[in-house]
Amino acid sequence: NVSSAGEEARRRMRECEGLTDALLYVIQTALGSSEIDSKTVENCVCILRNLSYRLAAETSQSQQGGSEELDGLLCDTGGKDAESSGCWGKKKKKKKGHDQWDGVGPFPDLAEPPKGIQMLWHPTIVKPYLTLLSECSNPDTLEGAAGALQNLAAGSWKWSVYIRAAVRKEKGLPILVELLRIDNDRVVCAVATALRNMALDIRNKELIGKYAMRDLVHRLPGGSNNNNSSGGGGGGGNTSSLVGKTMSDDTITAICCALHEVITKNMENTKALRDAGGIEKLIGIARSKGDKHSPKVVKAASQVLNSMWQYRDLRSLYKKDGYSQYHFVGSSSTIERDRQRPYSSSRTPSISPVRTSPNNRSG
């Protein structure tokens, strides 16, 4: 619980010699054993998730080994055509070759193994988190691991860019998508926000739009939730069990924000959202006006609809489905302004909030 006590406590814990190494050692030794679902592993993961909170802002440049932002590797940082590979080539200034990285090859700056605090954000930390997400059944550990990846993948920090690519290279996106189907509201919320941050990477965005769209839409309330015709369904007994229950506002908002990121500057993904039946559900949420959902949820759904309407080439399809501009734009006066703003903690946070150990929490 010390890791949740604020910025100064996090700073001191990060600088505590051997702590990060020890936490990762406990997790590594538990992988593949019955200990993977233990309280010990859960606590270690939750500490690492908390220590991963706001790393770029709370660590020095000397600790980070350089803090260049790789804006050219973000798919939402301007440019004429975000659907082209040119998004990856956008550069700010010539800098030591950092922004020459193509997003595919070996990571720069990784000549030496990480030490101490650097282990928190080094791409090698992705693999144990993904192993936990694929093998663990403890929902608090799953939420913690997804929240850690969510924190590490947020923003335009150089190491966040590397983490997003590392998750793709380690085949982590299918693992996250699979967890959208789990019967646990908090896990789904953390995973949806992690996917939103992963979608800042243009290649991740294309993959998430292609393989996760139906799962994301399926999690939205309303519409016909008996949509089992998708190839993205699959899964076992946990699939769709949460849909019949009342999801929290935070989870519905997280799903809407993930959808918004995935369709931003990507017309193919927007068409996939329409094909998956997302319009009907989003309109149902946006029109609820607080009857069923909070203003935060209504605003998030309205934001997705507004962005969908921006694609002129898709409007004929919308009209064919019986929808008009009114269904997409409505009366939300602040949506367009918010669309230009990066996600911040005042809305659905792109970083996982620090939490105390969930000792008394149960499913």
Q: What do these coordinates show?
A:
With 363 residues, this protein is an all-alpha fold. 50% of the residues lie in helices and 0% in strands. The protein contains 20 helices and no strands. Helix 2 packs across helix 3 (39-51).
Rg computed from alpha carbons, rounded to a whole number of angstroms: 20 Å
Estimated helix fraction:
40-55%
Approximately what portion of the residues adopt beta-strand conformation? under 5%
Our count of helices gives: 20
Largest sheet entry: none
Helix and strand succession? Answer: HHHHHHHHHHHHHHHHHHHH
E-strand count: 0
Give the N-terminus to C-terminus distance in angstroms: 21 Å
Model regions low in confidence, pLDDT < 50 over at least 5 residues: 75-99, 226-241, 331-348, 356-363
Structural class: mainly alpha
Mean pLDDT: 79
Overall outline:
elongated
Set down the secondary structure blueprint.
Layout: H1 7-14, H2 19-30, H3 39-51, H4 55-58, H5 61-64, H6 86-89, H7 126-135, H8 139-152, H9 158-169, H10 173-179, H11 185-198, H12 202-211, H13 213-219, H14 249-263, H15 267-275, H16 278-286, H17 295-309, H18 315-320, H19 325-329, H20 335-339
